[in-house]
């Protein structure tokens, strides 16, 4: 039987069975639902997009997968060329993997080995944010800071390798003063912390982080698995502040297949480029550079550019602000809006219990968690559908 994610199987209510999906809609036997979470924030072009379907079908007729160990192919070459030219600065070296968690592991391993290759074994500490979420594998759990996901790590006691700070410049400066000798990297979900509660913060924090990282030789890693491809209203937050290593996942393939990429800059890459075999990066997920994933990712990026997705996202943000301008409720602590993300944080988690069924009846699929009722819609959503999603959220409080 299926063991479902983040769920107590004993009390779980039956999940909705999806029998078809098209555009922003999911279909069950008896209901048509706007997917207001874009299948965990990934399906930015909606379902069954004709051009994405064609890209993957065309590749399928050639081959679906060959490994990257000793082999290469057009689909992965084209995607890496595209990313190299499309991504900002000297983020040029693409290491592919099958999921966001693994891609974060890859980023952390790169940052760590960079210094080990230089004979410096002291820089082992990771600076991260409070409420951070970077995935569900062990190292990503360790740098994450959300008890609700990762309490299992308590069995090991508090980690000596990770420091968590709030998104305040004062705390940032203090952490660098205190730990800069042993700091290896600073990893953040830039501007928008997703699974930790759709928390939003200011770019000035990241600008100061960049300065401090430069000053002390600490790598800055942006986990843009959730924020990448427009979610914050920026193409990438990396367009505003340039990290040393960038991690992309979720929307990379338009939500078609699991794939992710860790993109390193020249400095990081040069730290491995050597006559010494032991300086090589010893990592290789079986399905890295999967041809179906790469072909659909390339088409997804082409659509993002040619259809001017940034203006679509701007429109989503404008409509969202307009619709929620006069909304308030004593049970709601804060309404947060950034780009294609809106979140109502409630004081008491019980306030939003039952919302999913309520939304289902109104033709919206939603999956609130903890104290957060949120929407991250596909960017192709029409105004009427977006208003329906927002009206449903407001209606719950009436
Ligand atoms: C979802 C997410 C991950 C993990 O990605 P998976 O593909 O689920 O392993 C990592 N970092 C952030 C910021 C995420 O939102």
Structural features, described:
With 398 residues, the chain is an alpha/beta fold. The chain folds into two domains: 20-49 and 307-396, Aspartate Aminotransferase, domain 1 (Alpha-Beta Complex); 52-306, Type I PLP-dependent aspartate aminotransferase-like (Major domain) (Aspartate Aminotransferase, domain 2, 3-Layer(aba) Sandwich). Helix content is 35%, strand content 17%. The protein contains 13 helices and 16 strands. It has helices spanning 38-41, 50-62, 74-86, 100-117, 138-143, 147-150, 169-179, 203-216, 266-270, 291-306, 309-324, 355-361, 383-396; strands spanning 20-22, 25-27, 32-35, 93-97, 125-129, 162-165, 183-188, 192-193, 199-200, 219-223, 245-248, 260-264, 332-338, 341-346, 364-365, 372-375. The strands form four sheets. The protein has a seven-stranded mixed sheet with strand order 4-12-11-10-7-5-6, sandwiched between helices. A four-stranded mixed sheet has the order 1-2-3-15. A three-stranded antiparallel sheet has the order 13-14-16, with helices on one face. The chain is globular, with a radius of gyration of 21 Å. It starts with 19 loop residues before the first strand and ends with a helix. The model has no long low-confidence stretch (mean pLDDT 97). The structure holds pyridoxal-5'-phosphate (PLP).
